[in-house]
Amino acid sequence: MLDRLLEGGLCQINRSLNFTESLLYTPLSNRLQRLILEGRKRELLKARALLLNLWDPLLSTDTASSQDSTHQSINYMISATNIDIGSNEYNSHLVWKTIRKRLEKVITSDLSNGTGCLLAIEGLNYERRRDLFLALLSQLDEIINCLYCEEICIERLEDYWKKLQPEIRKCALIEMAGAYVQLSQKGELKSVADTLASSCAWYQEDKELPHPKLMLGPLVQTQPILIDGYLLSLDDPRAFLRIEILVSNWLIRNAELIAAEILSTCSEWPELRSYLLHRDLVMTRNLERLRNQLNAQEWWNLCFERPIRLYESKRLLWQINDATIIPCILTEPRDEELLDLVWWQQLVTLILETRDAVSPQFEFLFQQAGNLIVLVLTEVIGKAIGLIVRGILQGMGRSFSRI
């Protein structure tokens, strides 16, 4: 019964989602209609994720494995593709060179959002968004080339990498904004790059970024990659694609941090909006609404979604596939991060643990209640109705015999 309820709800959501996506693919002259359809698409994706999250513990293993989850597992998304390294001999230099070329090619196109949630980079116009990704990729290329020359042990790599992150984001922002661009602020010309660099908070971290050794270990020190219980070298397409996913995830999440700071600065500097933001965000109301939605989304992710992912040993990654930013899930132990949660976040995991412990009892209770109802309907009420009908028929037969 639970399986049929879930399948029916998923089918209804998928039909509505397919219809909405078909409307989005058609050219729309009205910007308001497109915004409404994009909001409807996000609503359906959230509804499907919530439905799977609520019903998954009550389903059997066979049923749960057949469901279409919003975030597909990274292990199933990695498959053999045609990858041209340009040489018969694989090494970390050629792998990184190929990854950079592939990402540069896809970044130059107008990326669409397929994550099911709002992204701060959507507020930037196409040119600034493209320049920001290319600047981050260029900064990453410089760091990796420097690491090739320096001999840094894997234990020191994390600290070294974390110290570089603020400077990487700062240099990428300056390159994106233009070192010599000046705009008016309250009647005075000011450098856009210098003003942004001084007003942004550079030491914020995205806690969903994986450990740097997963990306830098294979690229810098030619370490094998563990995928599905197999240690794979760089000549395996699955290992290549795993690194590419980690690199694209790093690019998108750092671009998100920078874009959020840009939106905050633009709210106080109206003249900057036309240069950096999408034309719809030149209006103060639209800009503040987007910022409020992003803040609410971040609060929800921090309070509920991230503790659930930690408890389920999942990490949300963002990758670029066919000019679309899509989510995928990397399954890895996150017990240490789980212990670092504050009490109200741990309360969410406690509720999940309680639900997992109670759901088998509820399932057994529902089964027994269903068996009891069947027993009452067939053995008690059914027999009683049969006796009543037989009595009526016998009474009617006697009355007919008297006539």
The chain-level structural class is: alpha/beta
Number of domains: 2
**Overall geometric form:** elongated
**DSSP strand count:** 8
Report the sheet with the most strands, covering strand number, pairing sense and barrel closure: 4 strands, mixed
Low-confidence stretches: 57-82
Q: Helicity, in percent? A: 55-70%
Cα gyration radius (Å): 28 Å
Amino- and carboxy-terminal Cα gap:
53 Å
Q: Overall mean pLDDT score?
A: 81
InterPro entries: UPF_Ycf55
Keywords: Membrane, Plastid, Transmembrane, Transmembrane helix
Protein name: DUF3685 domain-containing protein
Transmembrane segments: 372-393
Walkthrough of the structure:
By secondary structure, the protein is of the alpha/beta class. The protein folds into 2 domains: 69 residues; 271 residues, no CATH class. 67% of the residues lie in helices and 8% in strands. The protein is built from 14 helices and 8 strands. Strands 1, 2, 7 and 8 form a 4-stranded mixed sheet that branches. Strands 3-4 form a two-stranded antiparallel sheet. A two-stranded antiparallel ribbon has the order 5-6. Strand 3 and strand 4 form a beta hairpin. Helix 6 crosses helix 10. The longest helix has 60 residues. It is elongated and about 110 Å long. 21% of the residues are buried. About 6% of the residues have low confidence.
